[in-house]
Amino acid sequence: LVDQPPGIIIVKSFEVLAKISNPAEGEESYALLSSKPLEGEDEAPTHELNIPYKQNPMNDQNANFALGILEPSRRKMLSRDRGVFASLIDLHSTHQKLLIDISKVIELMCTLQPAEFVFVSFAYELDNFIVSRMKHREKILESPETDSQTIKQELASFARDLAFISNFAQQLGIVFFAAPETEQLREALKDSIGFKGETVRDERRARLFHILLYTFSHNIVAALAFCLWGGAFLTASNFLQKIDPLDVSLMFYLEIDQLIDLIERPLFRHLHLRMLECEDDPNQERSGAMLFRTLKSIMMILPQSTSYMILKERLTSMARYRQSAVALTGLSKLIDCGSETDVFVKRIVNVRKLHCDAKWRNIRAESLEEPSRLVDEDQRLTAAQQRREWLGYADESEELAMKEKMKQNMLGNTPKKAELVGVYENLNDMAASPQTVLDENEECKQCLDSPTTKGLIQQFEQVGAGDEGKEDQSNPQWREYWASRQ
Fold first, then answer.
1. pTM of whole model > 0.85?
2. Angle, CA 224 vertex, CA 266 and CA 232 arms, to 5°
């Protein structure tokens, strides 16, 4: 891939890898789906089976449970391990220029193996990659022997790794929504949260959604699109209320434009009809009112552009039908702690905090200040204190008092100074002083008698005296000039 070989070589290489990595007959795969599914297991109620814990789904037990959604014929196509996926991630993290073509590689892998397995494997290996980088960063920051230059380099490297993970998640989202190879995966995850049932298959779909959300959380727009597809409107709405200003950038706006263009396509046509529905409980994940609120939040984040106008026209027409002022009453209800929605929102918020923390550390590292080994919520307070000292305020109270004084001055609430009484009363009675009118001869005479003019005359006389071959000094040209002025 680094040497950019012909496409046929890449295709044949991945075909060979797929055949080599597939377990032979009688050989167990990499702890995934090693047990045969029971007949009628997917239709059984969830309370009759031992379902793994869902708080942190990034382990082989949860992956085994989620991939149980595959048919027996497709399970035979799985690899014995995820080594190929880890190698691809390491390769593209080193040569990030190759990310442009990673979507083609993912599509090719989805033709050789089930798309569910490909996406789950990438999700797990991306999570392992970022966890290992976080441990390495902590080791560097906690070492007392590390100098400031090394810390700056490590913070910049970690920020680049997070940007790489974000771009990789974006490419995964493009393949998920656009590639025909992922059609079965899209159908399996469509409304997997919004219309979740009580069967084991519904729980498998929800667990698969949770695993992939761990990866898509590294890219805001990919996470929003994935939540809209899975029917997790409450999750998307609550996350948008907690968005960090550092996440709102030019690239974010460009990706939001692509999301709105995607929503207007037939792929998301079911969402347009979903907004027409009025439920008894508007605080459900699948609520049409919550979907309306999510799209309205996206619109309010956007600047007034073409995408803004497209979304505004659709929401305006929907609002007239829904009478949204009544339908959206009470949507600020807090979600239950520990619920599925709470778990989803916390995951997205924590991942975005990690990205914003890395951006903040990198910004400080590029400044003239010493890089901080520990950056937490108090870091902003430290920056505020340094700014206050630079402006010359003794403490926060003095700064607030000065701001209040400036505010009062701007509002015109400052006390007026006492004016002198009687000063301007006799202005009209004062006699105007006579103005002296000079004719042209007197004005020219005063000009010649002024010190400035006399100094210029002396300089011209000295210059004229030093020049040989010029006119007679008794009648220089400057005398003719001044005579013509009289």
1. no
2. 85
